Amino acid sequence: MASTNNALRVLFILAVVCAVCTAKRTGPVKKGDTTAAPAPEPESAAAAPKGATKATEAHGTFDISKMGAISDGKTDSTEALQEAWTSACGETGSATVLIPKGDYLVGPLNFTGPCKGAITIQLDGTLLGSNDLSKYTASWIEVSHVENILITGSGTLDGQGTAVYPKSKTAEPKALPNTLVLFYVTNATVSGIRLIDSKFFHINIDSSKDVSIKDVNITAPADVENTDGVHVGGSSKISITNSTIGTGDDCVSVGPGSAGVTVTSIICGPGQGISVGCLGRYKDEKDVTDVTVRDCVLKHTTNGVRIKSYEDAESVLTASKLTFENIKMEEVGNPIIIDQYYCPEKVCPGKRSNSSHVSVKDVTFRNITGTSSTPEAVSLLCSETQPCSGVELIDVNVEYSGKNNKTMSVCNNAKGTSKGSLEALACLV
């Protein structure tokens, strides 16, 4: 009898132990729950890229440091970042590519869509652009055919252009990569980041719409051309605001085919100012319309606010509904310019033959104040065959800061009105 009782005790203890182990594996079974085993692992988790298990568990966040990227500024991390984009782009719903603090060396990156959901690129570290030019066929970072993307953070895109800039202005120009290109992108925001020393343009917005650039800081050497801060071409509904930009070229440039562009609260300098153009350089360019530049400060730039078109323009197009208002100039070389004789290469066959095919009309310069570092504060040089029309100079009071000359203006073939402006600047007819 005793042996029988001992056997029963052993069986009971084994049963309890088995029950406890089962509970630890599957968790408690709720009342009414007939499912005792966990659900199978989703296919998306099973297909996660190698080394990304921790990154993908965080609600669609792909951390490049957990996917093979090394933050020593020397090891090529291109593959890890490209893989993070591919994984995020394939996620249903929102996904994030996380670039944590550290320095990551990367070559050309192609962030191509369409993607299954909205994408955030969280840039908290620094991406360093490779200086091996043989790797590039176009730009450094190109975002193309993507809807709903946010590029944000406190990090930096460092193009490392100082190592490859032309050593002299007479050197043969090279086709160097832009830092960040938005190409056929819709509903995009670039916010908070810093861009420095691009090999070419820092941000190039092309064939896109509903794009916001805000709270960015862009810097490059003052003596290097083609390092535009933000360039817009063939795009619509573009906002560039609350940013500090200082480069060797235009702080902001608006090219052909652009419409509905707003540039506000920009501190610009050094550089060549804020421009509409160049226009007419290539065939089949489209009109520019509805551009507003407002509440900006330009410091020690070679030009202020400018409209420029080639004197031997290849295209017939119109630039219209352009407004520049509430602009403060601080020692700016040429504060207000319309130039239909633009010819930087000095080999234009037009030779001021009044052959311009670009029409400029309905332009307003309003409440522009400050100082000019040259006597010619206003220069409106329009074509005889394509006179500028509907030009307004309203409350324009920019004075030459020097002592050896007086403030001047030049208006050729420019038709419009002046009101409330410095008498020396009221040259419109």
Average pLDDT, rounded to a whole number, is 86
- List the uncertain runs: 1-57
Number of helices: 4
Please give the radius of gyration in angstroms.
30 Å
InterPro entries: Glyco_hydro_28 (IPR000743), PbH1 (IPR006626), Pectin_lyas_fold (IPR012334), Pectin_lyase_fold/virulence (IPR011050)
Subcellular location: Secreted, Cell wall
Keywords: Cell wall, Cell wall biogenesis/degradation, Disulfide bond, Glycoprotein, Glycosidase, Hydrolase, Repeat, Secreted, Signal
Region (Disordered): 29-53
Q: Any chance you could write out the topology, listing elements then pairs?
A:
Blueprint lengths: L1 H25 L16 H4 L6 H5 L3 E3 L8 E5 L1 H12 L5 E5 L3 E4 L2 E4 L6 E5 L2 E4 L11 E12 L3 E3 L21 E12 L2 E3 L6 E4 L2 E6 L2 E3 L10 E4 L2 E11 L5 E3 L4 E10 L5 E6 L8 E12 L5 E6 L6 E16 L3 E7 L15 E15 L3 E6 L6 E13 L7 E5 L1 E6 L10
Parallel strand pairs: 1-3, 2-4, 3-6, 4-7, 5-8, 6-8, 7-9, 8-10, 9-11, 10-12, 10-13, 11-14, 12-15, 13-16, 14-16, 15-17, 16-18, 17-19, 18-20, 19-21, 20-22, 21-23, 22-24, 23-25, 24-26, 25-27, 26-28
Description:
- The structure is a single chain.
- With 429 residues, the protein is mainly beta.
- Helices cover 11% and strands 45% of the residues.
- The chain is built from four helices and 28 strands.
- It has helices at residues 2-26, 43-46, 53-57, 78-89, and strands at residues 61-63, 72-76, 95-99, 103-106, 109-112, 119-123, 126-129, 141-152, 156-158, 180-191, 194-196, 203-206, 209-214, 217-219, 230-233, 236-246, 252-254, 259-268, 274-279, 288-299, 305-310, 317-332, 336-342, 358-372, 376-381, 388-400, 408-412, 414-419.
- The chain has a 28-stranded parallel β-sheet that branches.
- The chain is elongated and about 65 Å long.
- It starts with a helix and ends in a 10-residue tail after the last strand.
- Its main location: secreted.
- GO terms for molecular function: galacturan 1,4-alpha-galacturonidase activity; polygalacturonase activity.
- Its EC number is 3.2.1.67.
- It comes from Paspalum notatum var. saurae.
- Residues 34-53 have a biased composition (Low complexity).
